[in-house]
Every structure is written in structure tokens, then in C-alpha cells.
Amino acid sequence: MTVSILWFRRDLRIHDNAALQWVCDNSTQVIPIYIHSLQEEKPWQPGAASRWWLHNSLLALEKKLADHGLRLKYFCGESETVISKIIEETNASSLVYNRLYEPHLHKRDLSIEKKLQKIIEVLPFENSLFFAPGSILNNQQLPYRVFTPFYKKIRPLLTPGHVEHDSASLASGLKSLKDVAVSSAQSLISLNLLDEPNWHEKLHSHWRPGEDHAFELLDAFIDDAISHYDVERDIPSIEATSRLSPYLHFGEITAQQICHSIWPLLEGQRDSKTAQSAEVFLKQLVWREFAHNVLWHFPETATEPMDKRYKKSFWRSSKRDYHAWTKGETGIPIIDAGMKQLWETGWMHNRVRMIVSSFLTKNLGLNWLQGANWFWDTLVDADLANNSLGWQWVAGCGVDAAPYYRVFNPNTQTKRFDSNFIYINTWLPEHNELDYPQPMIDLASSRDQALDRYKQNISS
Ligand SMILES: Cc1cc2nc3c(=O)[nH]c(=O)nc-3n(C[C@H](O)[C@H](O)[C@H](O)COP(=O)(O)OP(=O)(O)OC[C@H]3O[C@@H](n4cnc5c(N)ncnc54)[C@H](O)[C@@H]3O)c2cc1C
Question: Is the CB of 392 inside a 6 Å radius of any atom of ligand 1?
Fold first, then answer.
């Protein structure tokens, strides 16, 4: 009899899960576990919105496993200690999991692997990106710092893949496994992921975490929106994008599963227009891959600018300005609408993310890290790699960053992408009222000042 500990982390799904598949193929008994270890996640413990998502995603996974007679067991504390105790109690012979790539978590995993492999078989799988980070290098065997050549290298390597879609065979694999009890297992509620009830309750009306809902969204996206994704993805009032980002972050769906599902469209099965549009969508998944590679090679970029000229002293400091930005009280409708959408739903449209981050870092001159921290706490899709890359790109201090003189003018952006104020009216109906506050800052002069600051910084 082989007993495996199946350690779920950010792979909260049963389909296309390499670790779980290995357990089905090689074990007779299983201990599915989730360990909540805030200490080990430091300094990037999940924010309030992510914790809400995590709680509900674990609940969905728990139900799925229960349908197959398996019980997801929760623990709090130091991972190595928790796992060692489980091994002692159950005589488990293997520890199986899918790798995480954030530098601090990867380091933690390597240390656990080194210690525990003396007493148990430790089997990590690569399953959350198209390719293991670090394996895609340029001709000089160096990491890519620019997206387009990275994309050109990776695109021909992508395939529809052999994604397990046969639920019947997975179900029979899961049914053949016997669940092993662990005396110290806790309840999901004891992890205390939901500590701000007044704020997170409203998220239920916008999201349904869990693998099944990820596929419902993907199917709906493929049925319709993907055909005009290339032209509509920048219009924040239209539901033209997939909204799969939190599901991808928590591993409720994989990039490979998405690629598999859209492959027929990429090959022109619907029409050439859809093929072209699906290609633009696939490119976004490669941006995600790029962001994870950047963080892998340059782990310091989660807190430090890639371009060292943008040190702390470059940025202004103003609690008042930062507060107005976080609360959506800048007096600039598109910015305030975006910040309200974030607060109400835990998500913000990509175009608006670019506008609000440009305003914070360029017009207000505040440090990109302040904005990244706010996003970290309030986004349901907060992702260290994507968030750091996004912020540094806009602030002009990251890899392949927007040139310093690219300052998104919120009014021009509104004219281009929300000309009928549909997005603004949705999130900020009060913007038409006479007493709506005036802009907190003059856009033209703050832009000029930003350009001067950047120019000076570059030439010094
Ligand atoms: C300042 C800033 C901060 C951001 N922070 C995050 C974050 O914390 N988490 C996050 O997932 N994305 C982040 N993004 C990227 C992007 O805004 C979101 O991925 C996207 O809006 C999610 O919506 P969607 O799933 O409908 O995207 P779609 O357009 O449907 O794209 C599909 C998937 O591709 C990936 N993707 C799309 N755009 C990007 C991008 N620019 N960089 C990396 N991956 C991308 C995402 O996984 C997304 O779910 C940030 C962008 C900016 C400008």
C-alpha cells in the first residue's frame, strides 16, 4: 500500500493537475492537504481580496474532492513541521505537489525537499506555466528582458498539449484512492481567511471561485467574446476579456488548458478573423509567462526597480495624495471610477489599471511600490509576477518598460476608450453632479513636471 501526501497550494483544481494525476496512477491511499502558513509567505502574505478568493476556492476544491470520497485537510503553521507530523502519524511514503515559482516560496520548497527527501519520496511537478521558468533563454543563454523576442521564441513551442479532459478516467482514478485521516487536521474556517466580512461580502455578487466556474467563463468567452477580443479588449465598459486572471493565479485553470481549448480557433476553425483575435488573447498568456520568468531571474524586482536609477529618492511622498488615489477621490472621473471598480469587485480592467497607475507614478510622482501594495491588498487576482511587471512597466523603471514620456492622459484615454461614459457611469454615477470635486491636480502641468523629473533622472 502506498500512501501519498498531496499538497495543494496554488493548484486548486483536479483536472490537468500533474501532482494529483501522479497520485492517482501510483498510490492507493492519499492525504490531500492545504497548509496556511502566513509566516512563510512573508512579505507577500495574500491580501484581503486574495484571502476571500482563497477561502472560496478551497471550499470549491473541498467539495470536488468530497464527491470522490476524499477529504481536504487544513493545517496552520510551518509547512515542514506540519508535513513531518503527518508523516509520523500516517507512515506516508511520498510528498507530491506542483511547484510554485515566486522566489521566497520556491526557496522554502527547496529547503523542505532537501530535508524531507531523507525520509520520504518528494515529487514536485511543473504545472502552472507553459514551461518551467528559466528554461526559455535567448541565444546567449541569458534571460529575456524584452517581451517581443521572448514571445517569438516561445510561440512556435506552444502546442494544444495533451490536456486530460476525460472526467470519467479522472473520476475512476480518484475513486480508487482511499482517504487517510489525520488527527490534527483543522477546519477551513479556522484558517481565518475571512477577516473583513463587511468588505468581502459584496465580492460574491461578482465572482464564483472554483474550477467549474473557470471553465464556465472560458466556454462563454470562447463562444463569443474571443472573436472580437482584439478590438474590444481595451474598452472597459464591455465584458470583452476573459476575467480568468484570479482563476489562473490560484491554479483553478492552467494556461495549457486554455491554450488547448482555443487551439482549434487559432488554427482557423471558426474564421480567419477569430484566429487573429485568439492569437492576441494567447499573447496575453505569454505576457503572464514573461512576467513569471522576469521574477524568476530578477527576484528583487518584486520590491526594487529593475532600472536602479529609480531609487526611493526619485519618488515624491504624500500621504494625502496616496489616500485620495486609493479612495477614488482624485476628481478625475476615469481614475475614480477605476478605483471604485477595484474596491467593489476586487478587479479592474487592464486599460484602467494602466491609466490609474500612470496617474499615481507620473502625475502624482508617487512610488510604484505604493500602488503595487494597494493592488496587492485589493485585487482578487493579485499576482506577484504580473503585478510587479505591470507597475514597473507603467512607471518606466522595469523590463521592457513604457518610455518615460508615455504619460497616459486620463481625459484623452476616456475619449478613446469610454467616449459615452458607460464605464464611468457604471462605477461613478455621481461624476455628473455639480458638486463633484475638481481634479486634485492639473494634468498638463503635472505631466510636464513628471517629464522634467524623469529627464533629469536619466541624465544624472
Ligand atoms: C499596474 C498593473 C498591475 C497589474 N496587476 C496584475 C495582477 O496583480 N495580477 C494579474 O493577473 N494581472 C495583473 N495585471 C495584468 C492585467 O491587467 C490583468 O491580467 C488582466 O486585466 C486580467 O483580466 P483578464 O483575465 O480578463 O485578462 P485577459 O485579457 O482575458 O487575459 C488573459 C490572461 O492573460 C494574462 N495577462 C493579461 N494581461 C497581462 C499582462 N499585462 N501581464 C501579465 N499577464 C497578463 C492574465 O493571466 C489574464 O487572465 C496588471 C496590469 C497592470 C497595468
Answer: no
